[in-house]
């Protein structure tokens, strides 16, 4: 005969399969809440404060005082919070004492999702029945367009939070298709309350840029300002009306500041585009960047300033010509293991 | 308590299910119509009355007997507070069956059947689940015209099955087959009505017997 002399706990533990995340019963959570409230009162007494008006912030301060911790991660330090915040909201056990599940679709696996589909289908049947009644009496309301632009459906994650259940992409798309179908029916106004639960308002962002009005200086001449950037150059331009086409950059004449023709052409381009070559004066300040970058920055600044002098249609033309868009190109960074941003080191076969 | 459970078993038709339906009702609900001759399953031949213009006609006398046995069985299961699960994979009648189950107080599964629902239940649902005590198939094929996986799974888990078998279905593993049409809406509504009435009757009778016992 063999006698068992020495065993380890690993051998004694039976081969039980993984049972998934721990499920908390309602009684357990209730007990935790009672213990938390008792503990809150004890803590208040310990700190010498009134137990009735002891808020969560007071609790946090008290715990930080009584249990000082040098741990870096805030979530690793001792905390005392309400059990609903600590224990994740999950489904409590779905069946009663006699073993019968509570929900009639429990045995499908995804009970809340399928019950949602069931309810939505029922609403659709109601709408169709109502529609039939109206057609029998010839009272169909036609051509009622609902505003679909300002609302969106709930995302998959939001729906998962609502149902407390994992969904697959297929399930989600099917649900959205059902809702779309429901909305397209003519008499779906009856079930609008139900549909609103699954739609969210999207604030329409106005993309119109407000054009600034003209300002007048002491001599009564109209002027307007604009700012522009290109690479690392920043420029501000002030464009005056009733001028001769004189351009001054950093108190230096344009011919002296930009000896190259290409830069001066860049400066002229907005005025050329609007056929106002000799009609405006310009005074600008620019800093940073190189020769070409400063020219581009002043061009953008002057185009922005000219918006106030010009009709809306011409502003739209300027935008389409690319005079009002900031050039996003900047110097690309050098990467390690390469000589430059793109250039690699010379490859030697051996 | 023992008397409560053993008394119904002594009568052949304790819940009087015969009065719920008649041959004429079955005929009006077009239960006798089967599929075409080419779709016929070999094991359904004993249940057929004949074949007219290539369409199989199911023998309604046999259907009456099978239906009576099946309804009697469901009534006994409901009387003993068993869990009944309605299964079907017909999309047309999914809503009808789910509402029937909800009104009875029993359960339904008319959606995609995940592989381990019955056989792997401890991992799918959690330990300590109670599996259904009866499976009722209102259409024993799935969407690809193959026998539903649940028939085989119920046989593996020793769960009795009641099923409406059409002329293209395999009645082998079903404990109480009911040869009949599973495609017409009238037939399905009739079946749902019958099952609902039997289950509600059985539950009422159980409650009455318990009340009588308590009064004594």
UniProtKB/TrEMBL annotation, chain A:
Example of a GO MF term: structural constituent of ribosome
Principal location listed in the UniProt entry: mitochondrion
Region Disordered: start-end pairs: 329-350
Subcellular compartments: Mitochondrion
Entry keyword Mitochondrion: yes
A GO BP annotation: translation
UniProt keyword terms in alphabetical order: Mitochondrion, Ribonucleoprotein, Ribosomal protein, Transit peptide
Pfam families noted in UniProt: Ribosomal_S9
Protein origin, superkingdom: Eukaryota
GO (cellular component) term, any one: mitochondrial inner membrane
Family to which this protein belongs: Belongs to the universal ribosomal protein uS9 family.
Name listed for the protein in its UniProt record: Small ribosomal subunit protein uS9m
Taxonomic placement: Eukaryota, Metazoa, Chordata, Craniata, Vertebrata
Automatic annotation (TrEMBL), chain B:
Pfam families (alphabetical): Ribosomal_S2 (PF00318)
Alphabetically ordered keywords of this record: Mitochondrion, Ribonucleoprotein, Ribosomal protein
Native source organism of the sequence: Steatornis caripensis (Oilbird)
CDD domains xrefs: RPS2
Function: Required for mitoribosome formation and stability, and mitochondrial translation.
A GO molecular-function annotation: structural constituent of ribosome
One Gene Ontology biological process: translation
Gene encoding the protein: Mrps2
InterPro entries reported in the protein's UniProt record: Ribosomal_uS2, Ribosomal_uS2_bac/mit/plastid, Ribosomal_uS2_CS, Ribosomal_uS2_flav_dom_sf
A cellular-component GO term for this protein: mitochondrial inner membrane
Domain of life: Eukaryota
Alphabetical list of SUPFAM superfamilies matching this protein: Ribosomal protein S2
Family note: Belongs to the universal ribosomal protein uS2 family.
Localization: Mitochondrion
Xref: PROSITE patterns: RIBOSOMAL_S2_1
Name under which the protein is recorded: Small ribosomal subunit protein uS2m
